Amino acid sequence: MKKFRYKGYDAQSIAQSGTLEAENYSAAYAALQFQGVTIVSLIPERANLFGLFFDFVTKIKLGGRWTSVFFRELSVMLDVMTLHDALKTLEQASDDKTEKKILSELIDSIEGGENFGTALKNYEIIFGGDSIQSVEIGETSGKLQEVTARLAEQLERSYTTEKKVRAAMYYPLTVFFAAIIAAIIMVNLTLPVFESFYQSQGGELPLITSILLTGGKFLTEHIFFVAIIFFAAIIFFVIIYREISAIKFFSDRLKINVKIFREIELRNLFSRLSFLLESGITLDAAIKLSAESSGNLYVRQILSDMQFSVERGEKLGAVFRKLSKNFSRLYLGLIVTGEESGRLVEMLRQCESMADFEIDEILRTLPAKAEIYGTLTAGIIVGALVFSIVLPILNMTNLF
After folding, report:
1. Per-residue DSSP letters for 51-81?
2. Is 26 in contact with 34 (CB distance < 8 Å)?
3. How remote is the C-alpha of 57 from its chain's centroid?
4. Which end of the chain has fewer CB atoms surrounding its CB within 10 Å, N or C?
5. Cβ atoms within 10 A of the Cβ of 47, count?
6. CB atoms closer than 10 angstroms to residue 255
7. Counting beta carbons within 10 angstroms of the beta carbon of residue 247, is it exposed (0 to 12), middle (13 to 18) or buried (19 or more)?
8. What integer pLDDT is reported at residue 197 of this predicted model?
């Protein structure tokens, strides 16, 4: 029996979460549906750190670029062959063991009668809940080929954004680590010379020099203990972040105040709403599905409030006007125009393009800003070290 962790809500829209045991994913899914739980996420539970590490490595290895390429190739193949044959072709063309394993299990699930969306949920950590949800809608509406093409485009944009952010961080991180290495060398080789000289003359080192010297000695003597504490603290905070919703909500609320994260969330929201509305789903249901697919708890709460307002008969533009303190008013005019003219889907796509433009502008200036802040941080570190060396030299005259 395998353990699965689930999140969802019951018929009264009350949140439900927990774990259950089942033979496989399909059995767990069927059991929750029988209990009347509408499933938001259902993933195999990793009972140990090795399992969590395996999930992390798999996501890093296959997330982003591979998933975008997977859906791009799939969309092209679905134009000329069945889903089963397309997956079989991709499996035969792959040389990577992990890829072949995933594709093989997807083929087995489909041959066993499962829907494609249900089969993908076995690897939700790789494909993402929103992508799987889109696939399910595509299967239901008979537009799977169009949906996979749209998913490929979205994932390519997300991967490009992530890659640009990482590239912008390389320089400041390199400078920062170079400054740390210089600090370690100076604290362990240069400052002890001053300590020996001052002790022989019966003097005392300046406070800043003593602090750096004491800290350097402690780290040198207890390096393994410090490393263990450091990694244990990281694991502890990751677990706390994953398990305690209040902490994640607070973190997500801070994140949404950063412009690039806010624009990415808006781009995803506009893309999601336009796709769902185009598929024939009502506005309140589209907002509800968008809330479920968002990984940001703060955004999810805002979208839930939006859904409630729309269900009461309010227009989307009026709701966005009330929430303008959380999201930019840049898109408000287009949404109001779209509702008044009956072209909301088209206007939402325009909003998506505008959010894309804002993200590109932020990414264009991000490397220069990262260099400035990275250089300033490194300068402060090196400046403190230089000051801790120069000050004892200047104070030497007091010893004679």
Report:
1. HHHHHHHHHHHHTTHHHHHHHHHHHHHTTTS
2. no
3. 14
4. C
5. 9
6. 16
7. middle
8. 65
